[in-house]
Structure formats: C-alpha cells, structure tokens
Design brief:
The protein is an all-alpha fold. It is built from three helices and no strands. Helix 1 runs antiparallel to helix 2.
Length: 66
C-alpha cells in the first residue's frame, strides 16, 4: 500500500472511532500531516475533500459553495 492510501485508510479508521465532536480535530490533524508529507491538499479522494472543504468553511478559510 502506498503512503497516500495508508494515510487515507488511517484517517477513515480514526473518524470511525471518534465521537462526532472530535471530527474537527481529526480533520485538522489529517490535513496538517497530508500537507507536510505531500506539500498540498491535492489528490484527496472526493469524500475526504468534502470534509476538508466543510472544515475550511467552518474556519472561515473558504466559501461554503462546495
């Protein structure tokens, strides 16, 4: 399994185990690690890209027109 797939699988498993109130922390942690490893948030699967977009909108970093 390549590094991208491994990080995605670990993130999905983490989200399954966490209470919904902890989702923002999980998303923030995942995006920080992804950007560190790959330099940008490109090549995310659509389902994770949506989570990241919602989180960015919550933080006022993006429009909520996804």
């Amino acid at each position: 399994m390549d590094k991208r797939a491994s990080l995605i699988n670990a993130f999905k498993e983490e989200m399954k185990r966490r209470h919904p109130a902890a989702y923002p922390v999980c998303i923030d942690s995942f995006t920080n690690l992804w950007q560190y490893e790959f330099g940008s948030l490109e090549q995310l699967p659509p389902d994770i890209e949506r989570l990241v977009a919602y989180r960015a909108a919550e933080l006022g970093l993006a429009d909520d027109d996804f």
